[in-house]
C-alpha cells in the first residue's frame, strides 16, 4: 500500500512541468493548485496553464484555499484573472469555473482537494469523482487519473484500466507523462501527429 503524505501525494514526489521551479513546487505540494492547473489546461499552452496557480497566488499575495475562492466575490475574481497578462485565453469563464471547482470541493470534500483521490477505493471511483469536477471532461478526467498514478503514486485498484490509453505504461500521450525535456518532446510530437492526421 502506498504511503501518502499530508498533501495527498506519495512521499518525495515532484511535478516537473515546463514551468518555473516555484510553479512546479506549488503544484507538487498543493493539490488544489494542481487541480486548478489541470482545469486551466485547455485552449492555452500547457506552460501557461500550469503556471496559472502560481500567478494567481502572486496576484492574491498568498496561496488561496478552496474555501477562500469558493466565497470570493465573482466579479473580483474575474478581474484578477483578467489582469494583463490574463491567466487564460478566457479569463472570466475560467475564473467562474475555478470558483465552481472550489465550491464543489468545499461542499463535497470539506475544502480538501486531496480527498478527491486519497479516499477513493478504486480506479473507477476515482475516475467518477474527477469526471464531475467542473472543467473536467471525460478525456481530461482520464488524463488526471493517469497523472495521479504515474507521477504522484495514487494508484487505487484499476487506475490504469480506467485511464486508458493515458495510463498505459511507457506511453507519451499527455501531461501525465511529462517528467523532463525528453518526455515533453515526445508528448508534443504525439500531439502534433494527431493534428496532422486531423488535417489530412
Explain what you see.
With 200 residues, the protein is mainly alpha-helical. It has 2 domains: 9-113, Hypothetical protein, domain 2 (Endonuclease III, domain 1, Orthogonal Bundle); 122-200, no CATH class. Helix content is 58%, strand content 0%. The chain contains 11 helices and no strands. The protein has helices spanning 21-29, 31-40, 46-60, 66-70, 74-82, 91-109, 115-118, 123-131, 138-151, 159-162, 181-199. Helix 1 packs across helix 3 and helix 2 (31-40) packs antiparallel against helix 6 (91-109). The chain is globular and about 45 Å long. It starts with 20 loop residues before the first helix and ends with a helix. Mean pLDDT is 93; it is low at 1-6.
Percent of residues in β-strands: under 5%
The top level CATH class name of the largest domain: Mainly Alpha
How many domains is the backbone divided into? 2
Total strand segments? 0
Q: What is the CATH third-level topology name of the largest domain?
A: Endonuclease III, domain 1
Tally the helices: what do you get? 11
The end-to-end distance, rounded to whole angstroms, is: 47 Å
- Radius of gyration in whole Å, from Cα? 16 Å
Order of helices and strands: HHHHHHHHHHH
| Biggest beta sheet attributes | none
CATH architecture of the largest domain: Orthogonal Bundle
Amino acid at each position: 500500500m502506498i504511503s501518502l503524505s499530508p498533501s495527498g501525494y506519495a512521499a518525495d514526489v515532484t511535478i516537473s512541468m515546463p514551468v518555473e521551479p516555484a510553479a512546479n513546487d506549488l503544484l507538487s505540494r498543493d493539490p488544489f493548485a494542481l487541480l486548478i492547473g489541470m482545469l486551466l489546461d485547455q485552449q492555452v499552452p500547457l506552460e501557461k496553464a500550469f503556471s496559472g496557480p502560481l500567478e494567481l497566488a502572486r496576484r492574491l499575495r498568498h496561496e488561496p484555499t478552496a474555501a477562500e475562492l469558493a466565497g470570493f466575490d465573482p466579479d473580483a475574481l474575474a478581474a484578477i484573472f483578467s489582469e494583463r497578462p490574463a491567466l487564460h485565453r478566457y479569463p472570466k469563464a475560467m475564473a467562474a469555473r475555478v470558483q465552481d471547482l472550489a465550491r464543489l470541493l468545499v461542499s463535497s470534500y470539506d475544502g480538501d482537494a486531496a480527498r478527491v483521490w486519497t479516499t477513493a477505493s478504486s480506479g473507477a471511483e476515482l475516475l467518477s469523482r474527477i469526471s464531475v469536477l467542473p472543467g473536467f471532461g471525460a478525456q481530461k478526467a482520464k488524463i488526471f487519473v493517469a497523472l495521479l498514478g504515474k507521477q504522484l503514486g495514487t494508484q487505487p485498484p484499476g487506475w490504469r484500466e480506467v485511464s486508458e490509453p493515458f495510463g498505459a505504461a511507457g506511453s507519451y500521450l499527455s501531461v501525465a507523462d511529462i517528467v523532463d525535456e525528453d518526455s515533453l518532446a515526445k508528448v508534443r510530437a504525439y500531439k502534433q501527429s494527431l493534428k496532422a492526421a486531423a488535417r489530412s
